[in-house]
Design a protein that fits this description.
4-stranded antiparallel sheet; 11 strands; about 0% helix; mainly beta
Length: about 130
């Protein structure tokens, strides 16, 4: 059974940092696209960052404009884990963050639809 389990969310003051982790199990995701999404109440699920790696093309990254320069996504294939380092957090970053995985093409990394596996979400709250 495939599982994605996030951790690392919490409450932080504006300007602070958090690191989210997502451990995958049940299948090797070394060649899959891994992404972090967030969804505020009443809004569509948004891709914050994604990373795709293949043996023949190397690594590809995606970042939403709203987090460029502040967030960094990384993956450790030996641990089946993907991370999201979040620095200079803002109150508008407050929401639930989800980890996702799947055989997602490069052209659609930011689209949530192709991702077949999702975690349960972790709450990030940034106080002003």
């Amino acid at each position: 059974q495939v599982q994605l389990v996030e951790s690392g969310g919490g409450l932080v003051q504006a300007g602070g940092s958090l690191r989210l982790s997502c451990v995958t199990s049940g299948r090797t995701f070394s060649s899959y696209t891994l992404g972090w999404f967030r969804q505020a109440p009443g809004k569509e699920r948004e891709c914050v960052a994604a990373v795709r790696w293949t043996a023949w093309s190397g690594g590809s990254l995606y970042y939403a404009d709203s987090v460029k320069g502040r967030f960094t996504i990384s993956r450790d294939n030996t641990k089946n884990t993907v991370y999201l380092q979040m620095n200079s957090l803002k109150p508008e970053d407050t929401t639930v963050y989800y980890c996702a995985a799947g055989a997602v093409p490069l052209a659609t990394m930011e689209n949530p639809a192709p991702y077949g596996y999702w975690g349960q979400g972790t709450q990030v709250t940034v106080s002003s």
